[in-house]
Amino acid sequence: MATTVRVELGERSYEIRIGAGALDWGWAGLPRECRALLVTDHRVEALYAERCEAALRALGWQVTREVVPAGEASKCMAMVERLCARAVEGGLAGYAAASYLRGVRFVQVPTTLLAMVDSSVGGKTGVNLPQGKNLVGAFHQPMRVVADLACLDTLSEREYAAGMAEVVKYGVIRDAGLFAQLEADAAGLRGVPVAPLEGIVARCCRLKAEVVAEDEREGGVRAVLNFGHTLGHALEALGEYQACLHGEAVAMGMEYAAALSERVCGFPAAERERLVRLLRALGLPALAAGPAHSWSDIRRVMTRDKKASGGLPRFVLAERLGRVRFGCEVDEDALRGAYEWCLAQAG
Ligand SMILES: NC(=O)c1ccc[n+]([C@@H]2O[C@H](COP(=O)([O-])OP(=O)(O)OC[C@H]3O[C@@H](n4cnc5c(N)ncnc54)[C@H](O)[C@@H]3O)[C@@H](O)[C@H]2O)c1
Ligand SMILES: [Zn+2]
Q: What is the distance, to the nearest Å, from the Cα of residue 291 to the centroid of all Cα atoms in its chain?
């Protein structure tokens, strides 16, 4: 099986090739005779670099390999410098590809569920500074995305569940049908590997591609993709990017955003409960089970978020499952009330 999703962005349009084995066949139609730099981390290298390089050599590409340490700490300026230096010899990942020679062509090969449904779609690249996450970055679209679902067989259950948080997010922001399908399949989706995944990954890529096609550079509707991320980013920062994975923080952030939505824009309590039940069924953590950060710490860090305007955090809030509003300002009592209410819930 194979699915192609097209991201329509005029001359920057490209295809996402999704399916088991895409590492072997997902490259068809790309230019031949390129010089390329394959950038990966040491864990993924050991598992998939040989196969990837063999497929690229078959296309006539000359490939040099650069391996970075696994983990968020590699997403830093020093690594951009190192990759750009290597790119002088080879060709180039993410922000480094956007920067080197003011932008070189690149292919993204997501190997986590989170990257397949989210980070590899839409061209947002970034690196972290000591002051915060993703503070330096660029919009730079790839010429192809190759998502081999078989790679997920080796992904840990924890990383897999974290990716599912972003899948659930698409259901809440834009696709109530997807949400219902996830509820029906939740038992089979927990853990790896899974059968209905190709359809789900393709559906998420299509949803993100639609949003990105409407708003490539995040001036408007693209903000809906940040559902659950305002609190999520604060939790990640307070845990110094080590206590929880991005998807876990987003799951807790969605629980909070749902409680807030119930208070300020009529999100039905029964739908909030369905969201929380689904997150639990997929193995994602509850806000009440995490480290109990004080509201004043959370609030202080939210103000630093780059989406905050004049010290006020902005929220994406749900009206119903599948329908959200963005850019919402919420009064301080409701912000605190919803947080403390979530913390008081039994797991
Ligand atoms: N650009 C965007 O729009 C966007 C959206 C969401 C998240 N992000 C960013 O993405 C980053 C997280 O990416 P990620 O979740 O893909 O994490 P990652 O690339 O750091 O991988 C997580 C871990 O899983 C391992 N791994 C990866 N694939 C594997 C496989 N197939 N088998 C076994 N192990 C594997 C890696 O070695 C690593 O240890 C964060 O920095 C986040 O900010 C960006
Ligand atoms: Zn995210």
A: 23
Q: State the pTM of this model.
A: 0.93
Residue 328 β-bridge partners: 315
Q: Give the number of other CB atoms < 10 A from CB of residue 277.
A: 12
Q: Is the pLDDT of residue 245 over 50?
A: yes
User: Residue 190: pLDDT band by 50, 70, 90 thresholds?
Assistant: confident
Contact 104, 125 (CB under 8 A): no
Q: Give nearest CA residue, ligand 1 atom 44.
A: 119
Active site residues: 102, 124, 166, 208, 218, 222, 226, 229, 233, 246
pLDDT digits (tens, 9 = 90+) for 114-124: 999 999 998 89
Residue to probe by mutation, ligand 1, list 114, 128, 227, 241, most atoms within 8 Å of CB? 114
- Number of Cβ atoms within 10 Å of the Cβ of 300: 12
Q: What share of the chain is helix, strand, coil (3-state, %, to 5)?
A: 55, 20, 30
Q: Minimum-distance ligand to the CA of 116?
A: 1
Ligand 1, atom 6: closest residue by C-alpha: 119
Summarize pLDDT for 62-76 with one digit per residue, the tens. Answer: 999 999 999 888 999
- For ligand 1, atom 1, name the residue with the nearest CA: 119
Task: Kindly state the average pLDDT of the residues 98-126.
Answer: 88
Q: Is 155 helix (H, G, I), strand (E, B) or coil?
A: coil
Residue 97 region by backbone torsions, left for phi larger than 0, else alpha for psi between -120 and 50, else beta: alpha
The H or E element that residue 336 is part of is helix 332-343
Lowest mean pLDDT among 75-89, 107-121, 137-151, 216-230: 75-89
Task: Provide the pLDDT for residue 92.
Answer: 44
173 Cα to the center of ligand 2, angstroms: 13
Q: Is 310 helix (H, G, I), strand (E, B) or coil?
A: coil
